[in-house]
Amino acid sequence: MPAMLDEGLRQRFDRAVTQINQIVVGKETVVRLSLVCLLARGHLLLEDLPGSGKTTLAKAFAATLGLDFRRIQFTADLLPADVLGFSMMQTHTQELRFYRGPVFTQLLLADEINRASPKSQSALLEAMEERQISIDHETHALDPLFFVIATQNPREQVGTFALPESQIDRFLMRLSLGYPEADSETAILRGQPRTAMLADRQAQLSAQDILALQEAAQTVFVSQAVAQYVQHLLAYTRQQSVFRHGLSTRAGLALIAAAQAYALIGGEQAVFPQHIQAVFFGVAWHRLHGHEHDNMQHQEHLQRVLDEVAVPL
Fold first, then answer.
1. Which of 62, 171, 173 has its CA nearest to residue 124?
2. Which of 127, 138, 161, 191 stands 20 to 30 A from 167 (CA)?
3. Exposure string over 21-60, b if 16+ CB within 10 A, otherwise e
4. What three-state secondary structure class fits 21?
5. Boundaries of CATH 3.40.50.300 in the chain?
């Protein structure tokens, strides 16, 4: 990591990465990008089949990062008040009292978010964008570290609702764990149950550590050439008929923020094109919509963007 971080923080961060990888076996790249999402002050969407380890990854973060943790199981009958909280008149004082919902935490697991109705999904919009909520004409601030990890089942599964584009855009990255490699899966099958491992693990970082890492990520240098490279990527996507619309300027800002965090984790003090490329799929996947729903074709289209846009020397 850059010299701007003291040695103690670097060591604690390395221990945190090691601990998460011990729980989420064989998914080092996904773990790395998930941490990038946190350090870039974004939110993370995990999409995969049930049983692939999405919830385990979120719980591993909670056990390792030293953050307050709450979980909401999204269901068809979930109401916005179940997420945000509600106000109730106190009979003895005739005053309105606000009861905080589970959104008032540092790390929120929105489990199976697309099983809830769009109305309940949208309860998180303001919270994710501005780290505050508004109820009964009053604004309530959330924790500065407020971080959402949402899990989503494939759209073709029964009982799911498509996330609105406004909700999708609140997530900095969309990642997929996929099936583990054979050796990793064997280790999982023979090893200690994940629930027991989670119970045994201690926090390796504090909230102050994470704030320091986030602030350091924002100071990673972005050159004019790298900013122009990102702009060329955005422009290229807007010219391709395979996408219904191209990447927005906000998507470009997300690319740069994610690349800064990726560079920080890799020990760099400046963003290079390879950092942009490393985070491109996670940032662009859910923002670029094709005319078909074939994941393999979509991946090929995204790869073509990186292949066709010239990389600055």
1. 171
2. 138
3. eebbbbbeebbbbbbbbbbbbbbbbbbbeeebbbbbbbbb
4. helix
5. 1-208
Eight-state DSSP code of residue 11: H
Q: What is the pLDDT of residues 74-109, one digit of tens each?
A: 988 899 899 999 888 777 777 778 889 999 999 999
Strand partners, 139: 134
Looking at domain 220-313, its CATH superfamily turns out to be: Magnesium chelatase subunit I, C-Terminal domain (1.10.8.80)
Two structure tokens written together for 213: 């890492």
For residue 179, the tally of other CB atoms under 10 A from its CB is 13
Alpha helices per DSSP H over the chain: 7-23, 28-39, 54-65, 80-84, 118-121, 125-130, 165-168, 182-190, 194-200, 207-218, 224-238, 249-265, 273-284, 295-308
Computed on alpha carbons and rounded to an integer, the radius of gyration of the chain in Å comes to 20
Spatial separation of the C-alpha atoms in residues 64 and 77, rounded to whole Å? 32
> Are 250 and 257 in contact, with CB atoms under 8 Å apart?
no
CATH 1.10.8.80 range(s) for the chain read 220-313
* Residue 96 φ/ψ region, left for φ over 0, alpha for ψ in the -120 to 50 degree band, beta for the rest: beta
CATH classification of 1-208, choosing from 3.40.50.10740, 3.40.50.300, 1.10.3720.10, 2.40.10.10? 3.40.50.300
pTM score of the predicted model: 0.90
Burial class (CB in 10 A: 0-12, 13-18, 19+), 62: buried
Given a contact cutoff of 8 angstroms between Cβ atoms, the answer to whether 52 and 91 are in contact is: no
Nearest alpha-carbon partner for 233 in 294, 293, 269, 283: 283
**Cα–Cα distance, 233 to 311 (Å, whole number):** 10
